[in-house]
Design brief:
This protein is of the alpha+beta class. 57% of the residues lie in helices and 12% in strands. It folds into two domains: 187 residues, Endonuclease I-creI; 71 residues. The chain has eleven helices and eight strands. The chain has a four-stranded antiparallel sheet, with helices on one face. Strands 5-6-8-7 form a four-stranded antiparallel sheet. Bound molecules: zinc ion. Zinc ion binds next to helix 2 and helix 5.
Length: 305
């Protein structure tokens, strides 16, 4: 089951405690569903829990009994008889004589509780949310531009800040920011889905931080080991050709320490000196030592390639 579908299934468990909210959610479902006119209401979903929710909503909000019909992978909820349609449109305040305009009637979502229920309704029909392991994205789509703008303004009034975009024949409201997606899902009643997104983000952050640290430490260790190997080689070169005494007095201790502690960092070598020197002091000695050893280095062969 996709994460969208899982989220919608969770939303279907939201209690229908208040009559005002039940109507508001049904209103959202109808505005964002398939067909909504004075001739026919037709809602299509692939999610069985959503199909069941639609029937419950229509029955509770309008007192109209409907059943979902399975059609391949889809479930269709349809109201086509005039008596039921009159009843539904009457409750929603539409004049049956006129065509239904796809506009948001703010009177239907005046209370905060109702506004949240309305958003749940539109998400059930037009919404999608990316799985927590993917890039964060939640969107709600409708074919009606002006409706989309009106819902956006409702959301802005509620302190949500969606972005809007047009895609082919649809208008889309979306969130890309994890915190905003979480807020939205929590508001409409999918706190479990919100939690999953949050946990995935925390895990990803931890993984990234650990990876960065490991990469950085590994790179530093490799760099240090490389430098030490070059120093050991240079010191051996001098000793092989001219013996340890060839080193000036001041560098002899450094050469000896490096040979006996090839894995030590410069700071550690500095501490091993007698008396100990500072790390910059050791750095300076090592540079002098390498410059000195360079005179004894064999002439490097030019690589073939
Ligand atoms: Zn309400």
């Amino acid at each position: 089951m996709s994460f969208s579908s899982k989220t919608k299934t969770e939303l279907c468990r939201a209690p229908l405690a208040r009559a005002c909210c039940t109507v508001a959610e049904a209103y959202g479902v109808l505005l964002y569903g398939g067909a909504f006119s004075h001739r026919e209401i037709r809602l299509t979903t692939e999610n069985a829990a959503v199909a069941n929710r639609l029937c419950v909503l229509i029955s509770r909000a309008f007192g109209v009994q409907v059943q979902a019909e399975a059609c391949g992978l889809k479930h269709i909820v349809q109201v086509a008889d005039e008596r039921s349609l009159r009843r539904i449109l009457g409750v929603l305040g539409y004049d049956f004589k006129y065509h239904i305009s796809y506009h948001l009637n703010r009177n239907m979502v005046e209370n905060d509780c109702c506004a949240a229920a309305f958003l749940r309704g539109i998400f059930l029909m037009g919404g999608a949310v990316a799985s927590p392991d993917k890039k964060c994205h939640l969107e709600i789509k409708t074919a009606h531009q002006s409706l989309c703008r009106e819902v956006m303004s409702l959301m802005l009034d509620m302190g949500l800040s969606p972005k809007m975009t047009e895609r082919r024949s649809s208008a889309v409201l979306y969130f890309k920011d994890t915190a905003r997606v979480e807020d939205f899902l929590t508001l409409i009643g999918a706190s479990r889905a919100a939690m999953e997104i949050m946990e995935a983000k925390v895990e990803k952050n931890i993984r990234n931080t650990v990876n960065r640290q490991v990469n950085c430490e590994t790179a530093n260790l490799v760099k240090a080991a490389d430098a030490s190997a070059r120093q050991v080689l240079a010191i051996r070169g001098v000793i092989d050709r001219a013996g340890e005494d060839a080193f000036p007095e001041a560098l002899r201790e450094t050469a000896r320490l490096r040979l006996s502690h090839p894995d030590a960092s410069l700071a550690e070598l500095a501490g091993l000196c007698d008396p100990p020197v500072s790390k910059p002091g050791m750095n300076h000695r090592m540079r002098k030592l390498m410059a000195f050893a360079a005179q004894y280095a064999p002439v490097e062969e030019t690589p073939d390639d």
